[in-house]
Amino acid sequence: MRTWFITGASRGLGRAFTRAALSRGDRVAAAARTIDRAGFDAGHGDRLLTLPLDVTDRTAVIAAVDTAASHFDGLDIVVNNAGTMSMGMLEEFTEAQARAQFEVNCFGALWVSQAALPHLRARRSGHIVQISSIAALGGFPSTGMYSASKFALEGMSEALALEAAAFDVKVSIVQPGGYWTDLYTSIATTTPMEDYAPLRAELERQWAEGSVDSDPGLAAEALLRLVDSDDPPLRLLLGSMVYDLAFDISRRRMDTWSSWEQVSRAAEHATPAPGTR
């Protein structure tokens, strides 16, 4: 029996992850801004601990993680799932809107990771799972700020994986495609500028033709396979669409780097430090 700490557990992927862990007999500290035991199947008894938590409040995060670790006598798996999505062209974002996107998606995950690491280091084991997004594969019109927050999460998590490995703590970044969650119903939007109306219309047409979303339960099944692995990957793609897109974007980047190789290499030539010649 393992102990999980899952943020954003009241809905969508977080709720699916919580139910999947409980269904196999594990213990879960389920945290969210608003959370109720009634949102989960009954019969879990003291294996389920619900904790109201705003992940942007670092002090509250530390207290919640400590409470969970004390209640269950340790932690094994930490899932940073809490996230929000803001949509709009980058020119349209106010400072408050831009900062709010990072507060949850990047800093919230940082605070939880910081709070959990002392418990995982003490046991010299554990697994931190960062729920990222297809948006971290590249920037796209109208989701640029969301992508930026997920890029930041992934850069931070790559460093965290190397640091935590010294204590036998694993870190994985999960990049899901589309799932039927409440994320779409709680999107924050900017005030549209008329200049971008044609681009918005084109994007709406593309989304109407190409949107593919899945049951969150499938993501939960993949997560269980990830945390059960003795050698989990740093990154895991979820879904055929995101899998194909990842390879397509990577190939295009490699092609661009290759075509500009001469310029890239010419920009480096070792010389003595200034003043030492």
Tally of individual helices: 8
Query: Low-confidence parts, pLDDT < 50 over ≥5 residues?
Result: none
Alpha-carbon Rg, integer: 21 Å
The portion of residues assigned to helices is 40-55%
What is the number of strand segments?
A: 11
Cα end-to-end separation: 64 Å
One letter per element, helices H and strands E, the order comes to: EHEEHEEHEHEEEHEHEHH
Q: Say which CATH homologous superfamily is assigned.
A: NAD(P)-binding Rossmann-like Domain
Shape: globular
Give the strand order, joined by hyphens, for the main sheet.
3-2-1-4-6-7-11
Tally of distinct domains: 1
CATH topology: Rossmann fold
- Strand-residue fraction? 15-25%
Strand-pairing-aware structural class: alpha/beta
Residue-averaged pLDDT: 92
| The level-1 CATH class | Alpha Beta
User: Which CATH architecture would you pick?
Assistant: 3-Layer(aba) Sandwich
